Amino acid sequence: MTDTAILQVENIRKRFGDAEVLKGISFSLNRGETKVVVGPSGSGKSTLLRCINRLTSPDSGKVLLAEEEVKEANIDSIRSRMGFVFQDFNLFAHLTVLDNIRICQTKVKGVAHDEATQRAYHELERVGLSDRGGAYPAELSGGQQQRVSIARALAMDPVVMLFDEPTSALDPELTGEVVKVMQQLAEEGMTMVVVTHEMSFARQAADEVIFMEGGHIVEQGAPDLLFSRASNERTRAFLNVIAENG
Amino acid sequence: MGIYEVLVRDFPFLLKGLGVALILLAALLVIGFVLGLAMCLIQLYGPRTRLVQWPLIAYERVFRGIPIIIMLFIFYYGLAGLLDITSFAAAILALGFRSAAYQSQIFRSAFQSVPTGQMTAARAMGMSKTRAIRYILFPQAMRYAIGPWTNEFSSEIKETSLAYVIGVVELTRQAHYIISSTQGNVLIVFAVVALMYFIVNKSGNSLLYGLERKLAVPGFGKR
Ligand SMILES: Nc1ncnc2c1ncn2[C@@H]1O[C@H](COP(=O)(O)OP(=O)(O)OP(=O)(O)O)[C@@H](O)[C@H]1O
Ligand SMILES: [Mg+2]
Question: What is the DSSP string of B107-167?
């Protein structure tokens, strides 16, 4: 744990019934760092992300955002500073793109309507969709919806962004536009934890790759190191598989 | 005097009866909406303790399981001993409380039709549960509810005629007065009254369909 760690995850455990899904996960993130989490299906990646912002409450362990412990009591305030991007976008279906990006600014942070509108256009520009403000989610492609959901999270001015397989629900030809936005964010110095199997993203943007299996962190390190000579055989095997498919 | 002259002369009474029926309808739907929505929200998002949930389940069973005429008698003659209640007020309460049971079910399935990801996304951005319900779930749930609610409207306009049995002078009873004062002519008088119910029903439905179209959002809640 360094002094500059903006997000600290300490010994998180979570069990669903008989199955212990997270068996003591710790890592920390400095400002501007990007960590990519990979691992087989069911290894607990989503559960880990959801324990960080308490969409699932961990059985034990703690999470600190800028040295403030995440608790039930301060959870709404913490969440307003932690962007979360879902696999299936979860845009608000009854609201236009513009209102999707405005509503949490106005209803959570109390930002004035006009200011929220300006911010919304600013974020839409960042994700390359400034002309789609009036569209409804159902009128957009999956890739566009995911970019809007990123813009919606960014408009809250997050300290950290959490991504849970943001491209997995997309047709292959649409993943590129989302990956590009994420790469650009990483370059601009956003602090992010990204669960993804997009190895091109991991190679280019990750400061560190965390490999999870069976609720443990099996291995972690710089992407080059991990990809070229992972010490753990299972890590190597897994990375080879997704490198071929991804 | 022929039946047509009588009908023309007494038409204002039928209109007055229709007015009473419409006030009854509006009042019972409002009570049903407010109570029904409250019950649905408590059932879905309130404390899960039996102390809270069981009375709501019991309420629904009772009001959906007992014939409305019995309910009207209970509210009018039963409550009359306890408080001084007019037949009109008794009808509003009996029909309104029963509508609450139906509307709560309509709203419950409407809220359950909203994908869980909507709540999750709102909560993940720091929205409180109450605000997420108000700004994200409610507007979507109402779009799912409006179709079934239109059916509820149609049933209830017809059900107002049952207030007849406890002496509320609504449209059906006005019709009955005209029939008793002219002997016979049941068919023509009731045909006119049927037409009046039909017109109200049709106009109400058109209004609600209009509202549904107005609220329609591309790709969402299509029935
Ligand atoms: N709410 C829940 N209740 C019960 N079991 C759960 C719940 N959420 C997750 N699990 C189980 O926990 C395990 C880990 O799930 P998780 O979704 O975290 O895996 P994952 O690494 O994200 O997998 P994937 O790559 O498929 O998304 C799985 O076995 C899953 O079935
Ligand atoms: Mg997952």
Answer: HHHHHHHS-HHHHHHHHHTT--HHHIIIIIIHHHHHHHHHHHHHHHHHHHHHHGGGGGGGT
